[in-house]
Amino acid sequence: MWMMPLRASLEIRISMTRSLQFVLGLLVLGFLSSCGATSNLEVTALEPAAINLEQGMSRIGIINSSNPEAAEISKDKLEAYFTKEDSRLAESGVHAALEGLKETLEADARFDEVVLIPDTPDVLIGLGTEPEQVAWQSIANLCKKHELEAIFALANYETDTEVKLKKTSYLALDLIRVENKVRGHELTVETLIENGWRIYEPKSQKILDEFSSREEIISIGQGVTPVRALEDLGSRHEDIVYQGKMSGTHYGSRLKPMERKIPRIYYIKGSPVLEEAHEHALNEDWDRVKPLWEKEVNNPKVRVRQRACHNLAVWYEYNGRLKEAIIWATKSHELGKNKTTKIYLDSLLQRESKEEIVQDQLAQTQYSD
């Protein structure tokens, strides 16, 4: 049996992506070191949450308002089999998505209660992006009944499965455990799952957020006959549940500030001291880098002083000291017109303007590990 479960496929994709980014980073770094006056350094920054709820929302409800469209049953036996199976598995996927969201919201300190409402009123099933007054009244009734300030909804859960069967040759063990090449069939099942989420606030009758995500699950089975290939495919239940859980967890995480990596430029040429500092930077020996940059702040050449101030700004940002970074970036900018430093200073000021929101959100959420 050969299967690629969603969890494994995600880990493989993430690993391959990180490896490629690392290799490309080294190539770029090497190119800049030999040919340019700058190099790159990644800085970690916190961005405000994608969803910024009003303060005071302490009781939240969750409903399933999705209404999967009934797929037509194909005349092809294999496609018909998976259409029926998807219909059965959808219930598990939906349940996992709701549980994933509930667990994530319960880890958020701002919420005193997170209620998973088992029965959704018919008027809310398959609800569009512009609910009519009767729908808003139903949402208000749910909130009143359960003493809620807002309702999170799984707005849609759709699957689209493509089945491919082909003749192939593959390696299989015979009765004496010897690997031989065998002619047979390979069955590939690709399932695209789309999850859509919304947040309803009855007081203002507004949809506070709307978000959708897509994930693909690929499973492959091999066998002498199509039936054997199907048996080799195994169960897709675990992958469907995992994808659903991750969808709910990811959506709930949109309520907290998220880390992102920002590439920053620092100068490596202009004086022997800057070049020496870069050698230490390549070894990530930052304690030896900073004193060298501080030394060049007093260099008789304005351009070198400007570059040293810029580099110190990057050092302070790298170490999470945003205010000091702005001070040094401002000093660099004041020493003369420089497009690179101006762009960097503007970026730091933008980060500072978001910092209050980030800290406020962090104080509210206090996510537990």
Structure characterization notes:
This protein starts with a strand and ends with a helix. It has two domains: 25-48 and 260-365, Serine Threonine Protein Phosphatase 5, Tetratricopeptide repeat, CATH 1.25.40; 59-253, Double Stranded RNA Binding Domain (2-Layer Sandwich), CATH 3.30.160. α2 (77-106) packs parallel to α5. The strands form two sheets. It has a six-stranded mixed β-sheet, with helices on both faces. Strands 2-8 form a two-stranded antiparallel ribbon. It is of the alpha/beta class and 369 residues long. Mean pLDDT is 85; it is low at 1-19 and 21-35. The protein contains ten helices and eight strands. It has helices at residues 6-35, 77-106, 133-146, 226-233, 237-253, 272-282, 286-296, 302-318, 322-334, 339-365, and strands at residues 2-4, 38-47, 59-64, 113-116, 150-173, 179-201, 206-223, 258-267. The protein is flat.
Task: Give the key terms.
single chain; 369 residues; Serine Threonine Protein Phosphatase 5, Tetratricopeptide repeat; Double Stranded RNA Binding Domain; 6-stranded mixed beta sheet; two-stranded antiparallel sheet; 10 helices; 8 strands; 48% helix; 27% strand; disordered N terminus
Give the secondary structure arrangement, pairings included.
Layout: E1 2-4, H1 6-35, E2 38-47, E3 59-64, H2 77-106, E4 113-116, H3 133-146, E5 150-173, E6 179-201, E7 206-223, H4 226-233, H5 237-253, E8 258-267, H6 272-282, H7 286-296, H8 302-318, H9 322-334, H10 339-365
Parallel strand pairs: 3-4, 3-5
Antiparallel strand pairs: 1-7, 2-8, 5-6, 6-7
Helix pairs in contact: 2-5, 6-7, 7-8, 8-9, 9-10
